[in-house]
Amino acid sequence: MNISNTLRRHRRLLLALFVFFIAFIAYLKTLAPTIVTEGDSGEFITCIGTRSVPHEPGYASYLLLAAALGKVMPGGLEWGLNLSSALTAALAVSLAALLFFRLAVYLFPAAVGWPLSVVCLAVLAFAFSLNFWEQAIITEVYAPTVALMVLILHLALSLTRHARRRDFLLLSLVLGFGFNIHYLVTLIGTPFWLYFFFRRFLSLKHLLLAACLGLIGFSTNIYMPLAAVGRPPINFGDPSGARAFLSAISRATYRTMNFSRSPGDFLRQIADYLYLMKGQFPWYFFLLTLWGLIVLYLRNRRWALFSGCLYIFFSLGLIGLINYGHMDSSFYQARVFFIPGYLVLSAWLCFSLGDLYERAAGRWGVKAAALALLCLGVLALLHLGSGNRARLDKSRNYISYDYGANMLAALPAESIICTEGDNSLYPLFYFKYLRGIGDKLLVIHQGMFRCSWYMEMLRREYPALVLVPGMTLRQAVSVNSSLAPVYFVNARQVHGLKLRPVNLLFQLDANQAQPPASFFDIYPNWRGLNDEHVPKDWREQSIISGYKEWFLRAGIDAATAGQDEQAERLYLLGLSIRMDVIRYSREVHRLLHLHLARLYGGQERRELSEKHARRSVEIKAMIDPEGP
Prior knowledge:
Elements (H helix, E strand, L loop, with lengths): L1 H8 L1 H19 L11 H10 L9 H11 L6 H31 L8 H12 L2 H7 L5 H20 L3 H15 L3 H18 L3 H15 L4 H7 L12 H8 L2 H4 L7 H16 L4 H17 L1 H21 L17 H26 L1 H27 L6 H11 L6 E4 L2 H13 L7 E4 L6 H10 L11 H8 L5 E3 L10 E4 L2 E4 L10 H4 L13 H5 L1 H19 L3 H13 L6 H20 L3 H13 L10
Helix pairs in contact: 2-5, 2-6, 3-4, 3-21, 4-5, 5-6, 5-7, 5-8, 6-18, 6-19, 8-9, 8-10, 9-10, 9-11, 15-17, 16-17, 16-18, 17-18, 18-19, 20-21, 23-28, 26-27, 26-28, 27-28, 28-29
C-alpha cells in the first residue's frame, strides 16, 4: 500500500524519466558519429573546437552550453557535441511530458485518473517526429531551443495559476539566456513576459529585477567580442567592435531576407508546408490531433483559441516571417522552424487520447480501456519510429567527413580551393582548423568573398594574398593564381573558364587563370569596333581604344614568353593613354590594371599588386566578366 501511494505521488517523475530514457535510447542508436551536411553542424563543431565565432547572430549561449556538455562526453569532441544534442532533446521531451500532464490535469478534471500511457504516447509521437529527431542527433541549436521553449511554457502555466514572483524572474532569466541560443525562444517568451508583467507585476521594482536577470542571461554574448579579439580562424562578421557586434546579434545580414517573397510565393509555400507535414506523422495522427482540438474547444474555449493561435503562429506565421528569398520553391530549409508547432499538435493528441480513454473506460472498463490504448499506441509509435529511423539513421553516416578527406587527398599541400555553399566549406574548415590537415590550404568561399571581414581574415592567414574590396572571384583568382594551383568545387563557379576534373574537384589550367585579353575575347558575338551595330561614338574613338588594346595584347604576349619587364612596360604604356568615357575603353583600361596586378603578384610586389587590383575594381566593368 505504501509503495502504491509513493508511486502515485511520484508519477510525474516516473513519467519524465521513462520518456527521457526511451527518447535518449532512440537518439543514441541513430546518433551521427562526426560532422554531417545537415544544417550548420560542421560549422558549430569547428567553432566550438577552435573557440571561433559562427555566423550571425553568434549563438553565444549555445556555444558555451554545448562546449561545456561536449567536452565532458566520451568519444571525442564531435561525438560529444552530437551526444549533447541527444541529451538536451531527451530533456526537452521529458519536460514536454510534464507539461502535457500538468495541462491535462488543469484542463480536464478527470485526467488524474488517466493512465500515464496517454501522456507517454503523445509526447513520444513528438519525440519521434521527423524534424525533431533529425535535430536531436547532430550538433545544432534546435534541441536546446525546444527545451527552453517548453520550460517557458511551464513557467507561463505556473504564472497563470499562481502569480509567484520567482517564476516571473526565472522567465526573465530564461529569456535573456535563450536569446543567444535562437530567436524562436524570444518569439514565444516575450509575449508571455509582457502579458504577466502588465497584468500582475507592473512595478518599477519588478522591472529592475527582471531587467537585471535578463541581462545576466544575455551576458553570454560577451563571448563573441572576446573570441573575435583573439583573431580566431573563423571570425564571421568580426564582432570585436561595437558596431559589428550589434550588427551580429541583431541578425542584420538576414533581416533583408524577411518578407522578400510575393503573395503568390506565400501561397505556394503553404502547400510546401502541408507536404512537409506529411513526413512528420502518419495520417491517423492528424485525425487524432484534430479530434483533440475539438475536445479542448468543447471543454475550454479560451485554451483552445490560445493553442490554435500558437499553432498558427508556428506554421502560417513563420512561413511569412521567415519567407527568405533564397529558399526557392521549397521549404525544406525552413523545416526546423516549425518544430514548436508539432509540439502543439502533440498536446492536442494527448487530449484526444485522454478523451478516447474516458469513452472506452465508460463502456469496457478501466483496465480494458487502458490495455487497448496501450497496445494500439505502441503499434502506432512503432510504425512512426521505424519509418522515421530508416530515414534518419546517421550512426554510420561519414559522408561529409569522407567528402572533406577526399577533397584534401586530391590537393597539393599549398593550394587555393574556391568553394560555394556550406556542404563543401565546413568539411574543409573542420579538417583545416580542427584536425590540422590541409593547414596550408587557402579556402576562398564565393558567398563570403566580398565581405570585408572575410577578406581581412584571409589576409591575416595568407599575407601574400592580393585582395581589395569589390573584387570578383575571377579577378582574385587571376591576380593570385601564381601563388598556388587553383581548384574549384563546382565547374560552374566562374563563367567561361575551362577546368579539368581532379578527383572531386576541378583544377584550373594556369593559362586559363589569366584575365581575358579584352571584352571581345569574353563575348565573341560582339564582332569588333567596325561592326555596324557598334555606336558611332565608339568608332570615333577607335584609334585611342585600339592603341590601348594593342598594348594590352602585346603585354600579354610578353608575359606569356616570360619577359616580365617588357610586359610591365607595355602595360604601363597602355595605361598612359587616357581612358575615354566610352565603355570599351574603360574595359580595356580595367583589364590593363588587372594584368599588372597579376604580374606584380607573381613577383611578390604586394603593394603594387594591391594598388592595381584596387584600380581595376574601381573602374566599373561594361558587363560583369564572370557572366550571370
